[in-house]
Amino acid sequence: LSHCPALPQSRPPFWCSAMLGVSDATLLLRRYGDLLGVLTALPLLSELKFGALVRSQEQSREALRKKAQDTQESSPKGNKDKKKDDKAASAATDEASAQPEDGTLANDSAAADVGATIPPFWAVAFMLLAEVISSMQLLDPEDKQTRRAVGVVLRAQQNGKEGFSNTLKTVEKVLEDSDVNELLRLTAAWAGIGALLISIILGLHKQESMVIGSPMKVMNQVVVRVFEGMLLAPRLWLFTLLGAWVVLANRSVLLKIINKSAIKELVKSSVVLWRTIGTVGTAMSCPRTGPMPLWATLTLVAGMVRVAHYVTFERLSWDVVTKNIDIEGVSANVCAARCMMALEAWAFLALAPHISIRRHMILLGGLLFAPCVCIVVGGPALAPLEPYLELAGPRLSIAVAVVTLCTVFMGGFPTMMAVILLAQVLIRIHKLDTMKY
User: Fold this and answer.
1) From 15, 208, 349, 403, which residue has the greatest number of CB atoms within 10 Å?
2) What is the predicted pLDDT for the residue at 114?
3) Cβ neighbours of residue 410 under 8 Å, at least 6 residues apart?
4) 376 near 14, Cβ under 8 Å?
């Protein structure tokens, strides 16, 4: 894989590069796509966590500022009165930063705006389903990738030397492992998208749940909302319990069907479809305000990087993918690449209005996609990045790890629930508590 073979096309493949091998280009594109995919959940999580507070303070300051201006306009223009009005305006501005004593938001419309910018339940469920299917081997009890990743981490922890510099070297060495990277990517996706799903299920994005105070108040409202949901929507819970009972009762038959190779290939090939449905559903359901432009930019660039990674990994030529669109006589890899490009074009049509509403997002998207273009085209375009290519792979892995930690700690209660649930599932499937390393 370290050189570009001669292909029958008259035009060389667009991934052919004299300075970067195909394997190295594939690794860089994969890790860069993982980093962008992990970053897509952060704007929505930050909106869920802090959006209501920021909007409430801004609306309070604006209202008090207008009140101070009206007072100045209606009062005499004497010097003493001006000084009093200035003191009143400054006092009003300071008062806006204060929160109510009962712990609720100062403005009801702030929480309503947060609820409008949170994606619908089914869209988030489709995005989470796509991430789970893409890492399905980590949930397969017959596959040892999860055990290998955990074993690498435990051995590094056991054999690691003391000292800050030695710890950093150990962490960097662990993150270079492909199994650890895959487990880290699943954890980040589950923590981000899973936290959004849990927040929507428990109603944490709604007005009554936006409480400023101790975690016990949040827990109290979560428990109350769950019981209210069970009483007000009994059909949903009954159908959910009935479906879970059917799956558990017929799990042996379902496992036999799922373990067939053709079914596995079909499920894996549907990842792009579910991710695109969730992306388009989110873009069509949410307004073009708040975190949506940034989310749309990151999502679009991540999808384009995934397409470039697949085409590079399969060693496909641009002429073969775009020309001669006949279905007969075309390999399955070419058809899969065309399907990915068509679905990404569909997602682009849905995301473009969110991106175009802020011009600097167009510039940001171009800057984020520029390294991918340089890697794919190669040649003179890759020359400015050549001194940094050797360090790019490990640094991208470290960046994914840092973003994962930020996602876990910033998400709060829903993120902790999602990570604990994933850890328990992996321990139960692979029996990690009894593993010897």
Assistant:
1) 15
2) 53
3) 42, 45, 46, 49
4) yes
